[in-house]
Amino acid sequence: MELEDILYRHFGYHSFRPGQKEVIEQIVVGRDVIALLPTGMGKSLCYQLPGYVFNGTVLIVSPLLSLMQDQVTQMKQFGEKRVVALNSFLTFQQKQYALNYLHQYRFIFISPEMLLQKQVYERLNEVNLSLVVVDEAHCISQWGFDFRPDYLRIGELFHGVNRPPILALSATATNKVLGDIQNYLKMDEPFHYIHSVDRKNIHLSRRQFQRQEDKVDWIIEHVLETEGPGIIYTQSRTKAENISNRLIQVGVQAASYHAGKESVDRQFIQQQFIEGSIQWIVATNAFGMGVHKSDVRQVIHHSLPSNIANYMQEIGRAGRDGKDSLAILLYEDGDENFAKMLATDDLPTDHHIALYENYRFKNENPFIMFQNGEISETAFRVLDYWMNEQPTDEVQRLLHKMRIEKMQAVDEMMEIVQTKDCMRNVLVHYFGQQLTERPNNCCECCGIIVKEIIEPRKLHEISTKPDSWKDRIQSILIGRKNK
């Protein structure tokens, strides 16, 4: 049966989007594939369709619970019942049931940490796997070394002449990240499909401020006068709460989203945003992956992202419907110092290495470090991985190198803030690509007129508030209009 026939029968489409068929053709003949497709280009079809070609199970390694749940829900809505997510949302009984009947599922979603659990891996060994997918594969490089080391172990589980083909999917990746993906997944001469990272419908703006308070004031005024939906990214849970509260006070349908909230609350907020009952999300970078909302019109960065890759991933959540959208980067002098501190905060230090060695010398479990509050959970997880992989002096060298690279990544991000050249050109060049053309209203450097990109907000859409707030809103809109 032709791939187009399968596409129409199971998904209702008559033709593929750019890159999809090229990727699927290589997968069905058993070849490893690395595919970089921008957000909204239909990456999930690249493994869902082969699931109906192969006589076996597709295993999808996914980074976030929300991403898994969203994919499972969507597939069930389209009639696929043989799909399950093995994650912490399952009760003990549900997990045992899923493991006992694992061979009956066509699609299995799983996190790297769950995959490495002995019971889970042993059951998967009994399943006829036809394809292994690593979704958001850039996490191998961006998270594996210093945040979630289990990402680096995925390739160790699937090797040998009879292993299934591996598909690595991402929206963005530098040449270094591509090398890490191929190396740590132990891929065999993979086929590469690299789509341009440039999203011409996302227009790039930036603003510079003298004080943090001025940033927040500007955000409030801007949100009051322009259309959403939108996402405001900040690097602090406290700031996410404060900004969202101020937006709510002036009648904006807003909510904060960060890892400090209960999982069920995050899911509820995310669903409200997707359905449109919340117009603005103020979030840490915990929000975004797997949020299938096509009409996000604006992404505002209140804080400087820690690297260009994160920035590109986050602004890529705007304009998935192909319509004009706006990405605004806000900067205050010294933001880079805060970004560097956050980027290196969870890295183990020489002191932690010495503590670890001391516990090991005393034949005590180094995990006591974490139990005693001498190290954070993330830092211990990273340290424990590397101390069991490398000699101590090599671990020291590696962690020092990571620290320097993270600070250099912030400096690279500063190029977006400081460049007098085209912001879009700097972004595309970072990923080793060339900019072929610049759209109208390209960026702050090339010239940009916001009102040609984002419509002004309608007064009747603002929640009812006391007259003083109505007067405040109207004065802002009138003042801006007269400028």
Automatic annotation (TrEMBL):
Gene3D superfamilies: P-loop containing nucleotide triphosphate hydrolases. It comes from the Bacteria. Keywords: ATP-binding, DNA-binding, Helicase, Hydrolase, Nucleotide-binding. GO terms for biological process: DNA recombination; DNA repair. InterPro entries: DEAD/DEAH_box_helicase_dom, DNA/RNA_helicase_DEAH_CS, DNA_helicase_ATP-dep_RecQ, Helicase_ATP-bd, Helicase_C-like, P-loop_NTPase, RecQ_Zn-bd. SUPFAM superfamilies: P-loop containing nucleoside triphosphate hydrolases. One of its GO terms (molecular function) is four-way junction helicase activity. Residues 24-191 form the Helicase ATP-binding domain. GO terms for cellular component: bacterial nucleoid; cytoplasm; replisome. Transmembrane segments: none annotated. Residues 215-367 form the Helicase C-terminal domain. PANTHER family: ATP-DEPENDENT DNA HELICASE RECS-RELATED (PTHR13710:SF84), DNA HELICASE RECQ FAMILY MEMBER (PTHR13710). NCBIfam families: recQ_fam. This is ATP-dependent DNA helicase RecQ. It comes from Ureibacillus manganicus DSM 26584. The lineage of its organism: Bacteria, Bacillati, Bacillota, Bacilli, Bacillales.
